[in-house]
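> run fold OLC1v1026237C1
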Amino acid sequence: MLLVNAWEIHRDPKVWDDATSFKPERFEGVKVEPSKLMPFGIGRRSCPGAGLAQRVVGVALGSLIQCFEWERVGPEEVDLTEGVGLTMPKAVPLEARCKARDFVPNVLPNEA
Ligand code: HEM
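> ok
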């Protein structure tokens, strides 16, 4: 069995500028070689849900931002340190406060 260390490739400074910074704009309008970016695996056993996931993640994230105001629970910056595990947990779980924006009750059914 061949195991590819995608984690390492995704952080390789030879492959990416400023490799460990969160810069989603680095992907705007560019076609990235599949051998550099493989969040869904690669080849015949790659993730068959990739198309669905990419659409749903965008809609879900957009809905959370559009429908809620978000804030930290305290004055400290959110700690983005990675924890240990296969699913890339955060070292410190995220705690945040959210409040539905004013328009939300008008578009969601009122459950009595
Ligand atoms: C952000 C969401 C997702 C990520 C990051 C992800 C990532 C992956 C990765 C890395 C693999 C292993 C590929 C390999 O072995 O090379 C995989 C396999 C798989 N994924 Fe996903 N996946 C996601 C969502 C989904 C969804 C929504 C579905 C189904 C609706 C799905 C179904 C599968 C299946 C069935 C496999 C096994 C494919 C096989 O072994 O032939 N995944 N996924």
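Residues 30 and 89 are 28 Å apart (CA to CA).
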